[in-house]
Each structure stands twice: as C-alpha cells, then as structure tokens.
Amino acid sequence: MNYSKPTFNEKYHNFINGKFEAPVDGRFFENTSPIDNKLLAQYPRSNEKDLNLALDAAHAAKDSWGKTSAAERARILHKIADVIQENLVEFAQMDTADNGKSIRETINADIPLAVDHFRYFASVIRAEEGSATELNEHTLSLIIREPLGVVAQIIPWNFPMLMMAWKVAGALAAGNCVILKPAEQTPASATFFAEKTAELLPPGVFNVLHGFGPEIGKPLASSPRVDKVAFTGETTTGQLIMQYASKNLHPVTMELGGKSPNVFFSSIMDHDDEFLDKCIEGAVLFAFNQGEVCTAPSRMLIQEDIYDAFIEKVIDRVKAIKIGDPFDENTMMGAQASNDQYEKILSYIKIGKEEGAEVLVGGEAAKLDGDLANGFYIKPTLLKGHNKMRVFQEEIFGPVVAVCTFKDEAEAIEISNDTMYGLGAGVWTRDAHQAYKVPRAIKAGRVWVNCYHDYPAHAPFGGYKKSGFGRENHLMMLSHYRQTKNMLISYDKNKLGLF
Amino acid sequence: MGEYKRVEITEEAAEVLPGLKEQHGELIFHQSGGCCDGSSPMLLPKEDFYLDDNDILLGEVAGIPFYMSHDQFEYWKHTHLTVDITNGRGASFSLEIPLGKRFLIKSRMLTEEEAKFLNP
Fold first, then answer.
1. Cα–chain-centroid distance for residue A281?
2. Are residues A215 and A276 in the same domain?
3. Helix (H) or strand (E) holding B11
C-alpha cells in the first residue's frame, strides 16, 4: 500500500462545546512537518479567553455526563474506538506527517493501540463494582466512585494520537469532562479526532485547545476551575504545574520521562537461537520512534563477558536500520520531531564525544535527498562510556543509546538505579532467578523482562523518582480521575447516648 | 588564576531577552530534565518558579540567573554550558516559545583551569 501526506485544510480551530470555534483573538500559529520542514496547516494560538469558553462548556456538561450510566459511556467509547479503526490509515498518515515517525509504526502501533485503549476502558467500567461492608451489625459502609468533574490534560508530541488515547479514554470512562491541550508540534490528530467523534460525545464533554505553553498551557494548568491536571513532559514544567495545583489544592499526575536501563545478562548468549535474536532486537529498540519515547531504553548495560560478541551483533542490526521517507513502509526510522530536538540531540552526541564516549556506530546527522534534505534526521547512535557521563544521565530523546558493561548482578542493579529517573527498564536473561530478582531491585515503574516497548492497555504505566507519579493504562488509572464517596449508614434506632 | 563562568550565552540567544523581560518582568532560567522538551533550559517569570536549597545558581547570563536542581548538577558539574537559541516549535511553558524559537544548551568539558576554579 502507498501512503502519503494527508490533505490538510489551511486553518483549524479549537474544539469547544461540540463545535469548532475560531480563537477569540483570531491568532494562529504555523505547524510544519519535520519530514521536510514544510507547512502543514495553521492552528489556534489560544489564550485565557478561549479557555474560559471551554471551561464554561465543560462545567455545563459535567453533571449530566457524570451521571451517564456506565453502559452508555461504554457504548460511546466503543463507538469512538470504531471510528478510529475505520479511519486508521488517515490517523496514521496524520501523525506521521506531524511527528515525522515512520508510517509502519503509526499503522501498526500508535493507532491500533489507541483503538484498544478506548475498548479497554469501555470494557472495564462495565465490570467495576464499588463495595458495601457491614462494619458492625448496624453500620454499613458504602464506597462509591464519583467523577472529579473537569480535568485538564496536557499531552506530548512523541505519540500524538496514542498519548491522547492514554489520557482521554480513562478520564471519559471515569465520567469526567476533558480539556485537552495537544503539544504545539503535533496538533493534527487531536483535531481530526474531535471532528470524527463530534457526534458521539455530548457537547462540552471533550474539548481541545491549541496553542503555546506559556499562553494556554499555563492558564489551563493553573485554573481553579479544573479539578485535576494530568501532564506528560519534562521536570521543570512538571514542577510548575504542581505549584499551580498546590494553590488550588488539586490533584495532579505526572509522567516526566526517564533514562531507562536495558540490562543484558551473560546467559542470553548461551544459545544462538530465536531468543538471542529477540535480545538483539530488544537492544536496538532504542531507535523505536527515533528514540523519542519516555521509556526509551537509552542506557544499554551488557555483562562484560559477552560484551564483545553481543555488541557486534547489535551494531550489525543498527547498521541495517533504514532511515528515509517516513511514508515509505520499509522505512524504520523517520525524522526527529522538530529542529530544536534535532539540534539538542546533536549537542548531546557532541558532549558525549568530549566526555570520552566512543562512537560505536552513527554519531551524526543523516543527510537525505530531495525534499527530505530539509527534514531532521539523525543516524542511530551507540556511545560507549560510563554511567557518570551526561549522556548516561540525561534524556536525549533521540536515537542515541549509552552503552556500558557490568561485572555481576549487583553492579547491574547499582548502575541501573544510579539515575534521577525510574520510568522503565529492561532485563534480559535465561536465568529464572535473575528474571525475578533483578526487576524487583530496579527502582522503576515498568520493568520489561525479556521484552521491551510493549504497552498493553491492561498493564499500569508510570514512574518512580523524578519520572513522576500516578499510573496510566490499567483500570487503576480510573482512581486518579475519581473521588471516593463513602456513605456510612446506621441502621441502629438507638441514639449514641452522649447528649 | 582567572575568573571563570560555568554558564554563558550566545549573542543570538541574548537578543530575545530584553523583549521578553519587558513583557514578563524579572526572569530566570531553570534547566529542565526528562521527557520530550526536557534537557533544555526553561525561561520563566522569576515569581513563577519556586526555588529553594534544592536548586543551585550556576551564574547569570545577560543579567538572568541560571538555576539547576542539585541532583542534576551533580552529573553536569564537569561541563561548561552555553545557552543558545534555535528555530523550532518547542513545547513546555518556556517564554520564548511563542517567538518560534527555542533555547538549548551547548556543552563542552571544563578546561583544567576552569575546573580548578569552579570545582575546587
């Protein structure tokens, strides 16, 4: 099948109260594609005035939406999933154009997973139950979950559609109204989603505001009229959002990235079989989505006795990565999301070299031809060094992995945990004891054992340490979007006897 | 032994600061970390960001103090930083973003002399 850049309108609007609304002040910004640095479309440069309209709409909708039966909310969420499924190719092309990632990833991962997230949350709310406990023969405690009301969700640009699904599906399932702010680099699929689902959700339940962080992100995050803020991004903005929430005493959840270790133990090379092949792919998954993943396995830890043999195979696999036109389904790695990301990644490769890291492969920009010459492409890069180097400690958010060796289990755990972050980790071994003990010792919210980069809706995802708090996916996410109502009921006809 | 600085700024980056100062008042840089637009410096209104002993002042650039969290600094202290600016559509709450520009950090290793002075 041939894929191509979808046709965009010249201009798009915010989505407020079930309709597309031009920004009040009439200002727009230009959204370009990192594939060729060409203009895709203009999106609203919203401010507080637009926010107030969205807040009014969401507040008007929240009571009736919060009382909608679980059966009805589930029916709607399934319909949303159907609509995404029916438009899968268009959504995939849109995210590829907007973000620069390869079409084979958007077609096979981003969009199908987004569909499944809506189906998962549609399903779990049908099976949920509260609780009724007889505390004594006269006293009944009922626990009932109620929606928070109006929630603000600020999402990143690395998986535009999927990160939206991760946040929105659970929030709607829990009975909340949503005000979503997509990242300014990738506003396209959220707008397309609003268009396709406009008839499915009551007006005001789902709202999209576009624009810049300081102009619309900040007023949204600091508004006393939102009942919760969920944020995925970096640590400084994370702190700011928590400060605003502290003024309002509102709950927040934070997903702030990581520097995830991917640990390869000697036993993986005991046999030359399909599992070893899987391990090699597991090491090369640092290049998935051009490395623009919060959980990217960006530190590769290899047990020293297999280092030479294993890294040779990894380097060969990296060299086979095809960088090119993201719309070509054979392309494995597309463009970095923007020029500033591209510059940042190159600056990290530079300081890595200066710190003494050895470039095992890559280490520079990839120059493509034709229109793609103006896009932002970087060769997948392995830097060999030690864990105190900056390239081992900072999220580069590009196709760059920092490689080091370790002697034994204890050192593997020590290096793995020597980081400010704790989002993801990978452990690869044929040893059953190691496969349990090492993941338990690594301080991270998600430890993949003999796999990596798998994101089922049914498994909770979130960080330890500076990677944030709160979980997304899994039905436990619903608890971050709900109040707990406890009704304590007495069936005793007799008074306490105090007064 | 001379005076050395941990952090400096390019002319291009400094050029946008007076306008932003006029618009937003006193400013600070805070070095971010983590996902997406992390690992980049954020320019924020001074009153907006809560600073305490967990933040280290690395110096001033163009009259604007540059901070970083203590734990992050431990991994950065052997390097010299230059605040630069590039075209780009960054996310985050950093104030230059509406200009279609984004601050970024260019780093190099401290020289032996600099290290002696800055990390005695």
1. 22
2. no
3. helix B11-15
A1 pLDDT tier (thresholds 50, 70, 90): confident
Nearest CA in chain A to B73: A390
| The predicted structure's pLDDT at residue B88 | 86
Taking every pair of C-alpha atoms in chain B, what is the biggest distance, in angstroms? 42
Token reading at A114: 């987004």
Q: How confident is the model at residue B37 (pLDDT cuts 50, 70, 90)?
A: confident
| B104 part of contact set with chain A, CB < 8 Å | yes
The 10s digit of each residue's pLDDT in A55-95 is: 999 999 999 999 999 999 999 999 999 999 999 999 999 99
Axis crossing angle, helix A70-86 with helix A111-127, rounded to the nearest 10: 170
CB contact under 8 A, A351 and B108: yes
Active-site residue, A255 included: yes
- Percent of chain B whose predicted confidence (pLDDT) is above 90: 86
Could you tell me the CATH number of the domain that includes residue A23? 3.40.605.10
Rounded CA-CA distance A426/A454 in Å is: 11
Say what the pLDDT of residue B39 is.
Answer: 86
Catalytic residue among A294, A394, A409, A472: A294
pLDDT in tens, A273-329: 999 999 999 999 999 999 999 999 999 999 999 999 999 999 999 999 999 999 999
Q: Are residue A362 and residue A428 in the same domain, yes or no? A: yes
Question: Are A99 and A186 contacting, i.e. CB atoms less than 8 angstroms apart?
Answer: yes
What digits encode the pLDDT tens for the residues A441-466? 999 999 999 999 999 999 999 999 99
Q: What percent of chain A has pLDDT over 90?
A: 99
Number of cross-chain residue pairs from A and B with Cβ atoms under 8 Å apart: 172
Q: Above 60 in pLDDT, residue B1?
A: no
Distance from C-alpha of A212 to C-alpha of A327, rounded to nearest angstrom? 28
Asked if ipTM goes beyond 0.90, one says yes
Question: For residue A269, what are the domain limits?
Answer: 261-449
CATH number at residue A435: 3.40.309.10
B73 CB within 8 Å of a chain A CB = no
| Closest alpha carbon within chain A to B108 | A351
Residue A248 within any structural domain of the chain: yes
DSSP B19: H
**3-state SS assignment for residue B22:** helix
Is A395 in Cβ contact with B38 (below 8 Å)?
yes
Of B39, B87, B93, Cβ closest to residue A395: B39
Residues A203 and A309 in one domain: no
Residues of A in contact with B34 (CB under 8 A): 233-235, 238, 256-258, 294, 395, 421, 466-467
Report chain A residues whose CB lies below 8 A from the CB of B77.
Answer: none
**Domain covering B7-118, topology:** Hypothetical Protein Aq_1857; Chain: A; (2.60.300)
Averaged pLDDT score across all residues of chain B: 93
Q: Is B51 on the interface with A (CB under 8 A)?
A: no
Once rounded to an integer, what is the mean pLDDT over residues B15-37?
94
